[in-house]
Amino acid sequence: MFRIGFGYDAHRLVNGRPLVIGGVNIPCEFGLEGHSDADVLIHSLMDAILGALGKGDIGMHFPDNDPAFKGIDSTLLLKRVMELAGREGYAINNTDNTIVAQRPKLAPHMQNMRDRLSRFLEVPPDRINIKATTTEGMGFCGRGEGIAAYSVVSLVKKETK
What we know:
Layout: E1 2-15, E2 19-21, E3 24-26, E4 30-32, H1 40-53, H2 58-61, H3 74-87, E5 90-100, H4 110-121, E6 128-133, H5 139-142, E7 146-157
Parallel strand pairs: 5-6
Antiparallel strand pairs: 1-4, 1-7, 2-3, 5-7
Helix pairs in contact: 1-3
């Protein structure tokens, strides 16, 4: 048995914050605004996993008005979502993700993101696809106001012994 989920997230770009995408710190003069570390890729991925499980969204599980999540590393939240998936009897089959950003260039960081996420998703990096695109100057991402991410995940029922 398998399930498919879709996730989306977007955050505003601001000065004075680190830029963290896919659990990787990316050298940049700006970062993403948010209650947590605002890792747009991990947030999108968590929403996809929760959607596949039929368990709502990250706002339900990690509300942005809860001080416990202020500034939290999103990989810690991803770990909790993966624990939930495990309790429900599911594991990641594969995931496909697209980051929408006019800048910075993300290609040099993609493999590092895949390697980092593979540890939390408990799958080999070749089951994690990450792409980046621009919007050629259109919309909030194209104007450099924010970064967005889209994720699709396929979950499979774990085999029981």
